[in-house]
Amino acid sequence: MKIIIIGGGFTGVQLAKRLINEKNDVILIDNDEETVRHASNRLDCSVIQADGNNLEVLEDAGIAKCDALICVTESDEVNMITCSLADAVYPNILKIARVRNYSYYINTSVAVTKHAETFGGEHRPLYGIDFMIHPDVEAGNAIVEAVRSGAVSDVLTFDNSDFELIRLRVEKDSKVDGKNLIEIRNLTDKPFLIAYVESEGIASLPSGATVLHQGDSIGLLTKKENATSIFSLFGFNIKEIKKIALVGAGRIGTIVAEQIVQHKKTTLISRLFGNKGSLKTSQDLLIADRDEALCKAAAQRFPEASVFCADVMDEGFIQEEKLNTYDLVICATHNHEMNMVLAAYLESMGVGKTISLVASSAYADIARRLGINVPIPLRDSVIDSIMSHLRGKTVTGIHTITNGEHEVISYVLPPASLLTGKLLRDVADPGSFLVLLLQKAGTKEFVIPSGDTAFSAGDTLILVTKTSETQRILDVFNGAK
């Protein structure tokens, strides 16, 4: 693919790196001299110093032959205008814009929905933007998924599936310590699968002969209803969550609080609360922020919660409100360093579980070393969302794991796929990819496939791949090579 990225900040450079590693032709454009110099030293691609919202610049960069335009500058307006400008002349190019203004994001979503309801059928995307991505929405949703799964660790859920992929650590004296995966498989009749193993800093896709040891981190795929019994094999027990403290009443905190309060149905959070997910008293959810305006808005919006306007780093407040007695503390302010420090401190004070918003996967690794249960890397969630849209119509979702070394992909098998009519054991490529789940075309249930599972057009696959191999594997699956 040929892709133009407008904006050479952290997100633009990291996105370019991933695309370059997959052998894509990338052009990065930014108007700041220092930014361009920095990007040029780090990237093996064309880096241009110019205004990306100039049609002549885009045409000189070869937009006519591009597959996608991605705008991730610090200015929402520049990102949106650039997409609109490109759409006016090159409507067939995929256009993605990152925006931080929540009003832009939500109003665009509402307008698109109303247009579809009023006129129906196909229509040009609003502002020419095929996909608009908001960092806070992506991060907020990731935090909510972690809460729903008990804040055990990093959690991936899949649309229309009761399976989830959870990162666990093999604990001391667990039943699986020193056993290979074939032996572990015989310890329970509950369906599960080990998607990846991280041992001594090295991540890999396992085989039946892979042996687990104390301290290894694994990706455990299992049904939500079986999570408690499967976790016990690895020496890990889920504790009931009754009291949640949410630090940060900004946009991300509001998204999280809204989901906790409103989504009270048949997810794992219902069982964790033990009361069908409802919050019985104001003591079940505490929201704290030092910003008075944010606290006032939170108190009006969430009467179910206790809202405090306070400095959460003040030890006096921590002791007065007994934050160390809470089952879960979520640190979701935009001060990522403070999130990590506070979460690590409260973890050392006896808090049941901690979730912390951090800047990137590099900080997420540090956070885990500090004892934080679930670090949520803000920037990586944006890049994952962009990558999922770039994979094409056959890819409906993507998420990076193991510090970016592997990806979990939701993939719909096209009619021309080379997998159609073949068995899983005949197409397996150990070490490169692993099929975790399969939903047969026309059915609603996901299952863990076996070597005898046959593929058909329209099947949905959840697979984990080595990031460096992802595009090659998808090309093979799609029949392109």
TrEMBL record:
Gene3D superfamilies reported for this sequence: NAD(P)-binding Rossmann-like Domain, Regulator of K+ conductance, C-terminal domain
Residue stretches making up the RCK N-terminal domain: 1-117
One Pfam family it belongs to: TrkA_N
Organism: Treponema parvum
Lineage of producing organism: Bacteria, Pseudomonadati, Spirochaetota, Spirochaetia, Spirochaetales
PANTHER family registered for this protein in UniProt: POTASSIUM CHANNEL PROTEIN 2-RELATED-RELATED, TRK SYSTEM POTASSIUM UPTAKE PROTEIN TRKA
InterPro entries recorded: K_uptake_TrkA (IPR006036), NAD(P)-bd_dom_sf (IPR036291), RCK_C (IPR006037), RCK_C_sf (IPR036721), RCK_N (IPR003148), Trk_Ktr_HKT_K-transport (IPR050721)
GO molecular function, one term: potassium ion transmembrane transporter activity
Keywords: Ion transport, NAD, Potassium, Potassium transport, Transport
Keyword NAD: yes
Domain RCK C-terminal: 153-237, 396-479
Name of the featured protein: Trk system potassium uptake protein TrkA
Entry's Gene Ontology cellular component terms: plasma membrane
UniProt-listed PROSITE patterns: RCK_C (PS51202), RCK_N (PS51201)
